[in-house]
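I had to read the description of the data format several times before I understood it. In essence, backbone conformation is discretised, so a fold becomes a row of integers matching the chain in length. I therefore recommend that a typical entry be quoted early in the introduction. For illustration, here is how one protein appears when written out as sequence plus structure tokens.

***
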Amino acid sequence: MRRARTSGSPASDIEEGSIIVVVATDAPLLPHQLKRLVTRVALGVGRTGGYGGNSSGDIFVTFSTANPRTAGDTGVARVEMLPNARMNPLFYATVQATEEAIVNALLAAETMTGADDFQVYALPRDRLITALKKYGR
């Protein structure tokens, strides 16, 4: 997230915070397909206003639970995989799930007081929902 300085100039915005996203699927995807899938997380983050600033430590990881028992050392393993041409629905779902998870986290957040009595306020739910509706979200 970011907090703007009083000058209002985009150059003066202070980017604060990072996000960690874990994408888990039971779709039978190979490592290169998982890499393609996880890149779509950034689209979901961007749709909610994140822009991955200079000091951001964003981490996106993904894994598939498909093809169990293929890590054994018992000879040739057989795996199933989804053809690349059928991955678009997974890409769309990843973007939407990321966006939904971020909005849910914003709505669930509570006002907190941290070190040195630094206070971070929860977003007013009604104002967030109004803003989301206003911009077709």
